[in-house]
TrEMBL record:
Protein source organism: Nocardioides zeae
Signal found in the keyword field: yes
UniProt feature coiled coil, ranges: none
Extent of the signal sequence: 1-19
Protein name as catalogued: DUF4333 domain-containing protein
């Protein structure tokens, strides 16, 4: 298994995002923040992060993004909104234990 996937499977991260108007986190911003957080956690950037849509900026909202590693293996990344304070959104990012 790719080092990134193995290491990321054991880590979680909390970060802050600016929420866009309308109470959502933009899809592109979400992908950038997930990639940045995972890169910081494991010291290696994933080849790609693909989130299916924008994320509602409300506590408990979730989405599943897909991480693509350098060897083209993929793994799900669960993202959950843990709190919202004005235009700030706290996220919990969990990488699945199994490669797709």
């Amino acid at each position: 298994m790719n080092r990134l996937l193995a290491a990321a499977a054991t880590g979680a991260s909390v970060l802050l995002l600016s929420a866009c108007s309308g109470g959502t986190v933009d899809q592109g911003d979400l992908e950038d923040q997930v990639k940045s957080s995972l890169t910081e956690t494991v010291g290696q950037a994933p080849k790609d992060i693909d989130c299916p849509d924008e994320l509602e900026a409300e506590e408990g909202a979730t989405t599943t993004c897909v991480l693509t590693a350098d060897d083209d293996s993929t793994i799900d990344v669960e993202v959950e909104v843990t709190s919202v304070d004005g235009d700030r959104v706290d996220l919990d990012i969990q990488v699945a234990d199994e490669v797709n």
